[in-house]
């Protein structure tokens, strides 16, 4: 396949076997390396196990274009011949080409298949049972957590105003309001939450009402009524003179005067 790579050693040009082939073929060292590249590429392309079925010594020589080249490979043990005449590449598993990668992937896949064989053999009913048990454990844990949470709240006996948020108020606005009341040492109670919830019911912008109350430092959600600074004095005794009976309890004398 175009673009595939084959493994060729970086010290191949100085390898002793190359020089033995140079001596046997009376040829240039680089030409030997070029012929090896062609031969090894053929093995990588057309063999999965290192055996080139149908390729004889003469056939390989014809492909390389060099009579005697294959025999020189055989003499340095870079090739051999089977009984049926097919060429064989020794230590083919060390060859790092596309086929080697495919063989490595196949081997890895087979190992994974053996490892996961038990998992694949699990029946559908067994898988359903596993899922059912897992779901049951999750439900039991959820119920237990809920009971523990409710028990802790009941044990503490403290009212959490965050749980009494009016429906038309956002969570953030209500949380800010609860924090404000806490900071001014006037924490919300269940009764005050109920009253304020009724006051905010139907309001066009309840979040803004709470924000205004916080910014002004109010205790309530609306402007507080301030007591008048005019003091109430007791009613003056110097009134009602016209209605008084000044003769009551007095004795009138003969001359018209009154005795005290």
From TrEMBL:
Amino acid composition bias (Low complexity), ranges on this chain: 147-156
Ranges of compositional bias, category Basic and acidic residues: 128-146
Region (Disordered): 89-166
Protein's recorded name: Pyocin large subunit-like protein
């Amino acid at each position: 396949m175009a673009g595939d790579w084959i493994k060729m050693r970086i010290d191949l040009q100085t390898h002793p076997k190359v020089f033995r082939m140079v001596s046997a073929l009376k040829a240039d060292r680089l030409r030997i390396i070029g012929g090896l590249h062609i031969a090894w590429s053929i093995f990588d392309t057309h063999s999965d196990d290192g055996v080139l079925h149908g390729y004889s010594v003469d056939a390989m020589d014809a492909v390389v274009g060099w009579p005697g080249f294959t025999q020189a490979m055989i003499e340095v043990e870079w090739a051999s011949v089977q009984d049926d005449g097919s060429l064989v590449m020794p230590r083919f598993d060390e060859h790092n080409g596309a086929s080697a990668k495919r063989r490595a992937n196949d081997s890895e896949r087979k190992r994974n298949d053996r490892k996961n064989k038990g998992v694949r053999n699990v029946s559908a009913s067994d898988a359903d049972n596993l899922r059912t048990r897992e779901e049951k454990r999750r439900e039991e844990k959820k119920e237990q957590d809920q009971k523990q949470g409710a028990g802790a709240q009941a044990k503490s006996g403290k009212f959490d105003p965050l749980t009494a948020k009016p429906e038309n108020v956002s969570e953030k606005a209500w949380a800010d309001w609860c924090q404000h009341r806490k900071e001014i040492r006037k924490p919300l109670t269940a009764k005050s939450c109920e009253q304020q919830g009724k006051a905010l019911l139907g309001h066009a912008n309840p979040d803004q009402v709470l924000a205004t109350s916080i910014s002004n430092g109010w205790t309530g959600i609306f402007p507080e009524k301030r007591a008048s600074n005019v003091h109430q004095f007791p009613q003056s005794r110097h009134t009602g003179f016209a209605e008084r009976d000044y003769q009551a309890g007095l004795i009138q004398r003969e001359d018209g005067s009154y005795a005290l």
